[in-house]
Specification:
Blueprint (H helix, E strand, L loop, with lengths): L1 H41 L8 E5 L8 E4 L5 E4 L6 H9 L6 E7 L4 H4 L2 H7 L1 E7 L7 H11 L5 E4 L5 E4 L2 E7 L2 H5 L9 E6 L2 E5 L5 H11 L4 E3 L11 H7 L3 E4 L12 H9 L3 E4 H4 L2 E5 L5 E4 L5
Parallel strand pairs: 3-4, 4-5, 5-6, 10-11, 11-12, 12-13
Antiparallel strand pairs: 1-2, 1-14, 2-3, 7-8, 8-9, 9-10, 14-15
Helix pairs in contact: 4-5, 7-8
Length: 304
């Protein structure tokens, strides 16, 4: 009698919790399917001849992840902290643990703060910096991680250098040695113009107006400007914007940041010149895609 009662009790418990258990299973399957669909949509599944540029929402900082049509991946800056790792985890496939190049435009903490973690997590083929020797704890952590990266090629980026990945070229427009030695660390920012067919993007780091004046003639017209210094009043001058004539500008900044970025005067300049603006503090992550023609750019917020 005792054995039968025990069995009956077990059946009763199973019957009672069966519906809840089935719901958990169904929810798990739904989450798995949703994850697969999201991977197809937003991770590193790049159609032939398509360039994908992610302007990542990493708070008050910069991080730009580029997937080449030929499959190579590069990261320009890593934001202020480890948040960039969650972003990369959403874009890259789970088993992908390699990045072809990591570029630090300059050593400010809001640009290199997350790069030490990236170098520890991923196998990196090439590391490019302006090699500024200004000593900060964040920069020291980045350099220590860089120097222990096995097999990485380390280069000092200078004006006139270029990186080529298939039909995609990143031409370095700044800095020179004098800019890197400037007391203002922002003046030493690495500046790239990216070209892929009819698509052109200017990635300007934190370069101030003094650098804009130096490079304006060599830039030419561009489709998209990654606005300098998070939209501060010290970058994106009228003269520079009228020279490079972007159709769109991307501003990377954190919600309610203590610097007041983007500055109202800068936003007014974009408005006056009819340049459309996308902002990571309002739009989240931003994705640019191009098959070599005119680029398409839109908000594409990632889950994390």
């Amino acid at each position: 009698m005792t054995l039968r009662t025990s069995r009956n009790q077990s059946r009763s418990i199973w019957s009672k919790h069966r519906t809840a258990f089935e719901r958990v299973i169904l929810a798990s399957v739904a989450l798995f399917v949703a994850g697969c669909l999201f991977a197809i949509e937003s991770r590193a599944i790049v159609s032939s001849h398509e360039l994908r540029v992610w302007f990542l929402d990493v708070g008050q900082g910069d991080a730009t992840f580029i997937e080449m049509p030929t499959g190579e991946q590069i990261l320009i800056d890593g934001g202020p902290d480890r948040a960039v790792l969650a972003k990369l985890g959403e874009i890259m496939l789970p088993w992908d643990r390699t990045i072809d190049a990591v570029i630090a435009t300059h050593q400010d903490s809001d640009h290199v703060g997350g790069l030490a973690s990236v170098l520890e997590r991923y196998e990196v083929g090439q590391v490019v910096t302006n090699n500024d020797q200004k000593d900060t704890s964040t920069a020291s952590a980045f350099f220590a991680a860089r120097d222990t990266e096995p097999g990485a090629v380390v280069e000092s980026g200078r004006r006139g250098d270029s990186l080529r990945f298939g039909d995609v070229t990143l031409t370095e427009l700044s800095p020179n040695d004098e800019d890197v030695a400037d007391e203002d660390a922002n003046a030493g920012s690495i500046v790239y113009r990216l070209d892929y067919g009819d698509t052109s993007i200017l990635l300007i780091g934190d370069a101030p107006e003094t650098i804009e004046q130096k490079i304006a003639e060599s830039v030419g017209d561009v489709d998209v400007l990654k606005a300098g210094h998070h939209g501060s009043s010290m970058s994106s001058s009228y003269a520079f914007l009228q020279s490079v004539r972007p159709e769109s500008a991307v501003l990377s900044c954190g919600q309610g940041n203590r610097y007041g970025h983007p500055h109202p005067a800068t936003l007014k300049r974009f408005l006056d010149l009819r340049i459309s603006v996308l902002r990571t503090d309002e739009d989240g992550d931003i994705l640019l895609t191009s098959g070599g023609g005119e680029p398409k750019i839109r908000p594409a917020p990632l889950p994390f």
